[in-house]
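Example 4.3 (complexes with small molecules)
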Amino acid sequence: MERIFNFSAGPAALPQEVLEQARDELVNWHGCGMSVMEMSHRGKEYMGIQAEAEADLRELLGIRPNYKVLFLQGGASSQFAMVPMNLLRGKASADYLYTGEWSKKAIKEAKKYGAVNVVASSEDKNFSYAPAQDQWKLDPNAAYVHYTSNETIGGVEIFWTPQTGNVPLVADMSSHILSRPIDVSKYGLIYFGAQKNVGPAGLTIVVVRDDLVGQTVKGTPTMFDYQIQAEADSMYNTPPTYAVYIAGLVFKMLKAKGGLAAMEKVNRAKAQLLYDALDASKFFNSPVARENRSLMNIPFTLKDEGLDDEFLKAAKARGMVQLKGHRSVGGMRASIYNAMPIEGVQALVALMKDFEKQHG
Ligand SMILES: *Cc1c(COP(=O)(O)O)cnc(C)c1O
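Answer. The structure with pyridoxal-5'-phosphate bound is encoded below.
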């Protein structure tokens, strides 16, 4: 079967071996005579699938027992509301770092539940960098500090862990989770939608420290209460069973490949290939500050934007799709998550060189 190189930011490419395993197990999972999609979420087969997925994720990320792992729905966008609803805990305000489109949405939503103190912003340079911690104006009385550790649209990644003292640190890791090791113990809460680097759309994972659950704001819907979800093992209602199953296959594959340290090596090599090509070129340009260049989402522009469509057409002709940049940034964006093989990046770099020769 012919597969193309899919540079979509999300839903994004899934590992081919995972898709093939899912295909083989689609109609009759492990001889039980039915598909995972048809299983009762309360049956022993599905309960086993979910428990194994959680155990594998805990192992990959090194999640300690004093953290809950929740398999939820509603996307990362629902977390923009659930985080303040659960974590304000009677405090007046929360701190937010403002580095692009996704933190903007998180801030807008949080303002419905309390005051938001923007600790620093990179709006002055069109969100092309992340302000260093010494520029943040942290409030020691804040309920928590929220940041977007990889701005998927701007391609701005933060590789250091902010220091927030006793104030819990919260991160939206939707577009770089599982791309490299992280120290979960430095965080109060981490959340991520699955459809970038984990699995199919429909699953959203929350990792939250025990002491931060159970103090929701008045009026919090039952489904939005981390404590209720945790007590029910994410089965207060029907979980997104098939998406959990596929995510579980991805976790197994990552473990077999050597875990997140091994993924980081591959991801760094892939990103370097593309950034080196951008730096060597007078025709293509990366708008992002060097120290914040994302390993996962790489926006770039052509010298003449009148050639954008032609570049996209040339890419499609060589089996590469979804390279058009987000409308707020323009140009191109190559999303090269775990599932993008290095051959895909090599093909893109070869195209860029040929295109520059022809048009530069
Ligand atoms: C994609 C994305 C979101 C939104 O995710 P949904 O699951 O569509 O709600 C939020 N934050 C970041 C960083 C993202 O990349």
